[in-house]
Amino acid sequence: MDERTAWDRYLRGEGDPGDLRQVRRTIHWVRDTFAAAARRERRPGTARLVLLDVDRIKARPTAKLPSLAEFAAERGLEDFSEEEQIEAYEEAYRGADNGQASGSAAARRDRLIDRQLEALRWLEQLVARDPGPADGVDAWFHPLIAGRLRRAGLNTLDALVTHMNHEGARWWRKVPAIGLHKGERISAWLQAHAPRLGLQLQEHALVQRSKLTKQGRAAAVQAATALRPLEKFLVPHELDGSAGCRRAGRDRLRLRADTDLEAVNAWIDAKSLGDGRSVLTATQRSYRKEVERLLLWAVLVQRKALSSLEAEDLQSYAAFLRQPPSTWCGPRSHPRWSPKWRPLEGPLSASAHRQALVILHGLFQYLNRVGWTEGNPVAEMRAKQP
Predict the structure, then answer these.
(1) What is the pTM of this model?
(2) What is the pLDDT of residues 36-48, one digit of tens each?
(3) H or E stretch including 210?
(4) CA proximity to 303, closest of 235, 248, 376, 356
């Protein structure tokens, strides 16, 4: 059956293709799907059988047969009668004609079709299986695409979706030989199977940054006790400062706050211009950056509440800023809503290091003034330095 007839008979519900290339791509996709099912069952031979195009089987070319005179001279039959020469000739080359060669190829083709049909009857029970997060990429994608994903370390569908959600809409740039069009095909397949797969591609992994909605940016990263911006950072109750070791008495408190995070947000708000605008000033952004880094370090590294930090802790933090781990660092170009956002770009310069301690000194001065904490660990650290 030719390709156009196959489409009209089996795929008419997909619409009029209009382009024979679309027909061929669809047929190849169907073959790939069955082959992937065979590979999932560790049947590589069946996968190769399904991908085999039997129409490519041709009759083997036959060698040119000698003339009767050439045959007689070669066999030493010159003195024999013509009738005897013909009889010997036919005996020597019986079955060597083109018709028989073509018949042999046709028989081989028929046998392969029978084997393919048998394989398809077995495979049709398998391809209906829903994909799972732990499935290898080679179980669902074309071998060439799967190979490129594996070489990039994306061995499973779970790893692939995680990578896409982390890298964003241009995730394919980190996968050699996967360009925009292949990337879009992979994204479309994952979107189509998302309800059954149980893995969700975030909007920022599908849409360019400039076209992201406010909801898409907000959903790009979930709040967690991990490297998150201040607004997405979840502080465990035991480290939230509600019972900090340096907390001042309740009688001194002149601040509406129950946790360290609420207290430092009040400090940032106090630096506003007082004109009612919700956009942070440059000063507020600078102060937020420094307190954000300290709070993340206190909870994630030092395992202490910010209101429990002592002078020795601030000394350790100062050393941390001089040589932060690579997991804490990333380009400034990544926005705060991005999964690739990090609190630092790298080790602070000497001037940036001094500025950070100046700002934190101001923070603890404020917390002491409003009755949130006793003393100032930054000042105490400086006093102990030679």
Answers:
(1) 0.69
(2) 878 877 888 888 8
(3) none
(4) 235
